Amino acid sequence: MDSTILDLTAVDAYLSAQLPGYRGPLQATKFAIGQSNPTFLLKTPDQSLVLRRKPPGALLKSAHAVDREFRVQSALANSAVPVPKMHLLCQDSDIIGSDFYIMEHLEGRVFLEPTLKGESNETRTAVLDEMNRVLAALHEVDIDAVGLSDYGPPGNYFERQIARWIKQYRASETAHIPEMDALIAALKESIPADDGQRTLVHGDYRIDNLMFEKDGTQCIGVLDWELSTIGHPFADLAAVIMQWQLPPGSEGRGLAGIDRNNLGLPSDQTFIDQYCQRRGLPVIDNFGFYLAFNFFRMAGILQGVYKRAQDGNASDPERATILGSYVPIFAQHGLSAIKR
């Protein structure tokens, strides 16, 4: 373990003082899956824990807010949304150099792609149905009752988000992309009127951010809450459908071109209908707008990655350049969605 990333002596001393029943010695292993907040498995003779921290060094003011992740998962402890148990939040950066929190280590399985390669059709159907159930449960959480009513600003969520991502995109723009300009104009003209839905949203809801039972299909934990806020639930729902429009495989992690019926996977419309049924909602009007919004936001994220590569700040410049080439493709997908 690289001691410059995690000071085990400091963590051991902190846990000895703060966590009842803790007993060292302590070992740590960094999870290999890429996350903007470095995450470590902590092992002692008696238990396993997870430490999630802000990255070391200078950061944007609102980025990597592990305190928000800790807060939202703590608030959901007794809800229908499965989350790990939160143990400790440390906001004393003198301990290991940045804020961090300690949570329960869940033992289960994570599916990296929605094709669920190697699983039976029955398992695929059950897992995707459980994904749907948990999403509906998330959006039915009473944010006042769990103390999250101030977890995000008031007002029209999509107006706010579109304005924010236009600003982010313009700041990282490296060349004129006509498709992005057309998508921005179309989104600004098509923002739905506020329908009063104001719920907790995950912000990055997809199959690989869910953990399931080792030998079953029940979800035991929703992970990676870094982008969570109070917003409009259809943003999360459309994010799932957006992901499925992408090519299958480790790059796109989508379902484009897949014979879903032959694999026991739901169609886009079936998934949407099941979600609406669970929440008691009518048919969603103008779903193409919500889908286009997600394509736009992802294009903005990819443009930022590309800009960092051009500026020499990307950790993997070659991959960042490849991702940047997808910006006009995502924009075109967004235009097609909003015209449907």
Automatic annotation (TrEMBL):
| The keyword Transferase is annotated on this UniProt entry | yes
Where would I find the Aminoglycoside phosphotransferase domain in this sequence?
29-249
Q: What class of enzyme is it?
A: transferase
Keywords annotated in UniProt = Transferase
Against Pfam families, the record matches this protein to:
APH
Reported EC number(s) for this entry are: 2.7.1.-
| GO MF annotation list | transferase activity
Check the record and name the PANTHER family matching this protein: AMINOGLYCOSIDE PHOSPHOTRANSFERASE DOMAIN-CONTAINING PROTEIN, HYDROLASE, PUTATIVE (AFU_ORTHOLOGUE AFUA_1G12880)-RELATED
- What is the protein named? Putative aminoglycoside phosphotransferase
Organism for this UniProt entry? Ruegeria denitrificans
